[in-house]
Amino acid sequence: MPFDMSLVQRGARNRRTPYYEATQRYEPKGFTVYNHMYFPIRFDTFEAEFEALLNDVTLWDVSVERCLEIGGPDGFAFAQLLTPRNLSTCAVGQAKYVLICDSDGGIINDPVLTRMDENTFWFALASSDALLFARGLKNAYPNLDVTIRELDVAPLQIQGPKSKALMRDLVGESIADLKYYWWRHAEIAGIPVVVTRTGWTSEVGYEVYLTDPAKGTELWEAIMAAGAKYGIRPTGPSDIRRIEGGIFNWGADMTYENNPLEMGLERLVDWDLPDEAVLSLRALRAIRERGVTRRINGVEPDGNPFPELNNVKWPVVEDGRKIGKVTSAVYSPRLQRNIGYAWLPVERSSLGTNVCVETEWGRRTATVVRMPFVDPEKQIPVS
């Protein structure tokens, strides 16, 4: 039976995505609220959806990744203020994974950015109020002629090894030429879309941005019909696969209290940029100079398989005191072991270090290991 939405607090404050009616036909088993929108989290068991992602092709509604659009004559300058990654290296038609950072270096969001023209950028946001952050920042730069808005486009993710074949059926053979982290305009069943070669799965995949929200059900069903011969399945996000692949979840694995250097994401900071061009760069230089005291690590907790993704952040304890926390943890059927992320002091972050974790299912010993846990060179999504 479809998920009973009476179990979720409803009202105009929380919005439905353009695909809500279509997803209801496929009997979602649960919802959460993400960026103030209802988000279907699964249609089957997490393990079954993981297998579908690894072997076939999956479709999931990610229009909760609300799109912050920065534009106007000074759009480039303002977008560069938001992120320490050098946007001059991002061509029109290209996308980049970036961090939006505050003046103290804290991470406000970690979106995929797409450069739509010379001065227009889309930021596909994780669940934080980065739109309000950008609007507030504009007040400090009144001389910049910039527009800031939430653009009403609705992305879907088409992911898995058969996604390339499905996309060729949907938009034509030329889609095979779309490079990893680039985008193009297309049509699916006559519906205008923007297609990006991106995803949140560490698998081969695409994101399809619907530019007319009234066409949500029509687009969803067109993709499902074309994907039938490939065994397409509607799913929610695969936490198993994203943790295997070393993908972080803003709000769980990092917040505005964390900075890129602690996260091991220094590659997303271009130190050659001038301080005045980037809001966070002075603070990030100071952090680099003094060094960090904690890091996020890959860990493998021992014992029986975790029955589900952790519901809370678990304390890491030593000699009766808390020294860190596990932010995401799940059992990987492929690896046949528990895997996850843990914030630890730098002196406890060496490979092979054992720490004690208080989980929802009892005390476990976790060992610090390399991450990503699967495909460390990230060859699968690029292939």
List the keywords:
single chain; 383 residues; alpha+beta; Gyrase A, domain 2; Elongation Factor Tu (Ef-tu), domain 3; six-stranded mixed β-sheet; six-stranded antiparallel β-barrel; 9 helices; 21 strands
Q: How would you portray this structure in words?
A:
- The protein has 383 residues and is an alpha+beta fold.
- Among the domains are: 5-63 and 153-243, Probable tRNA modification gtpase trme, domain 1 (Gyrase A, domain 2, 2-Layer Sandwich), CATH 3.30.1360; 293-371, Aminomethyltransferase beta-barrel domains (Elongation Factor Tu (Ef-tu), domain 3).
- It contains 9 helices and 21 strands.
- The chain has helices at 20-24, 46-55, 75-82, 130-138, 163-171, 216-227, 239-244, 281-290, 379-382, and strands at 30-34, 37-42, 58-61, 67-71, 95-97, 100-101, 107-109, 112-117, 120-124, 147-151, 154-159, 183-188, 191-196, 205-210, 233-234, 294-301, 314-318, 321-332, 337-345, 354-359, 362-369.
- A 6-stranded mixed β-sheet has the order 12-13-14-11-3-15. A 6-stranded antiparallel beta barrel has the order 16-19-18-17-20-21.
- β6 (100-101) and β7 form a beta hairpin.
- The longest helix is centred in the middle third of the chain and has 12 residues, at 216-227.
- The chain is globular, with a radius of gyration of 21 Å.
- The two termini are 38 Å apart.
